[in-house]
Amino acid sequence: MSEDTPEAAETEAPAEGSVTPEEALEAIAEGEELGGRNIDALYNVKLDVRVVLGRSRMSISELLELTKGSVIELDRKVGDPIDIMINDRMVARGDLVKVNGEFIGVALREIVKDFISGT
């Protein structure tokens, strides 16, 4: 396996003194330093951010019947807030917005209180 493949990056051991995304989120939420290391070092930690429009369940037979143009019904209504997830943890809700005419973004509506400790 080549070292420039995504699989190689996922299996590499963390470098000594490095911080995992989970440690970074926890430390930021708690306002701590990590083992005496400066919290500023966390600003370059990459996190997986997902914007979840909705969910749907379907059987394998329904999945196999999908073709170009098929519509998958989601569990949300138009105008409902969408979920913002960081490393599989919901941290906020927001609304879809148009950015620079042709792109979409998310305008944050609320920060999930469970994400911030002590609230």
TrEMBL record:
Key words of the record: Bacterial flagellum, Cell membrane, Cell projection, Chemotaxis, Cilium, Flagellar rotation, Flagellum, Membrane
Pfam families registered for this protein in UniProt: FliMN_C
GO process annotations (BP): bacterial-type flagellum-dependent cell motility; chemotaxis
Presence of the UniProt keyword Transferase in the record: no
Transmembrane segments: none
InterPro entries cross-referenced by the UniProt entry: FliN, FliN-like_C, FliN/MopA/SpaO, FliN_T3SS_HrcQb, SpoA-like_sf
Domain Flagellar motor switch protein FliN-like C-terminal, chain residue ranges per copy: 41-103
Example of a GO cellular component annotation carried by this entry: plasma membrane
Molecular function via GO: cytoskeletal motor activity
UniProt cross-references to PROSITE patterns, sorted A to Z: PUA
Acidic residues biased stretches: 1-10
Function according to Swiss-Prot or TrEMBL: FliN is one of three proteins (FliG, FliN, FliM) that form the rotor-mounted switch complex (C ring), located at the base of the basal body. This complex interacts with the CheY and CheZ chemotaxis proteins, in addition to contacting components of the motor that determine the direction of flagellar rotation.
Descriptive protein name: Flagellar motor switch protein FliN
Organism of derivation: Cognatishimia activa
Gene: fliN
